Amino acid sequence: MKPLVPDYIANLTAYPPRKPIEEVEREYGIKGTIKLASNENPLGPSPKAIEAIKSHVSTLHRYPDGSCYYLKEKLAGRLGIPKSRIILGNGSNEIIELIVRAFLRAGDEAVMAHPAFIVYQMIVQAAGGKNVILPLKNFTHDLEAMAGAITGKTRLVFITNPNNPTGTIVKRVEFERFMKRVPEDVIVVIDEAYFEYVSDPEYPNGMDYINDRLVVSLRTFSKIYGLAGLRIGYGVASEEIINCLEKVRQPFNVNSLAQVAAMAALDDQGHVDKSVRINSDGLSYLYGKLDGMGLSYVTSQANFLLIDMKGDGTKIYQELMKKGVIVRPMGIYNLNNYLRITVGLPEENKRFIEALKGVVE
Ligand SMILES: Cc1ncc(COP(=O)(O)O)c(C=O)c1O
Q: In the chain, what are the domains?
């Protein structure tokens, strides 16, 4: 019988499902579990966003504004660019899909790093594209190698900056050197899901490059704005690129509560500042404690930390879960000895360290 799908679909691995906290608690007979696994904002959504959502629930019988008119207007004002250069999506994940749908045909190549955000590989493969994957160097994108891997078939390059799961960044000098080597017809996607957390002054902000050439900057309301559950992100690029992406999206891809919440969150700078502060304090605390335990980690520019457990990460992940602390094992990224933990509230970070001590010491 003819196969239902081509091999490139059959060989895909579904994104691994995670157990809800309630399930973990029931299984282990515990209470008060904390989740430091998905790089979410431990402070929750901006209170202003919550208010905006509450006051709009009675309009849910209406379709959303398919053009995200007011949100685009607000973002455009913030970024100092025309509205026509912005696209909104059902999370920035959807925009990755739109980019692949619009610009990559079966057999075309996409260049990316590994370990980096795993979703690029899945989407490119699902479209029949070829993933050209370059290993990280010192936990950082090896832009020299990535530029060298570009061929006549390359349509897209993905750069995760800061990178997930390592928290590292590529710096301005190396990024600009890389861009000089990229041919005119290759689209460079800079995934900046965590850019608000970056403190390194050598960080190349994607907005400084969107006028240069075929650059797309991807951003999200899922991280610093604490709106992951609503699914909303955006892309900024040339009008020409955005026009192509608009043609391949669904008419109402961003729901109405996400739109009003995102607008309110943009107006809550206090929440953003507090989120940045809690994160940098949390990272300093974790660095100090891990140093004290003799565990090494990759210094992070994001809201998570990759830690070398010097042993089977999956086992330690399971032991931590029994103690009510959910983190992320890294087997999917071939980093079997590592765990990635999201920086939490001060009491959550403390709880993680105490649980970790109980497991490894
Ligand atoms: C690097 C990176 N890009 C994009 C995303 C997805 O963001 P969104 O929730 O906007 O789809 C994530 C989520 O973890 C991420 O780590």
A: 7-32+270-360 (3.90.1150.10), 50-266 (3.40.640.10)
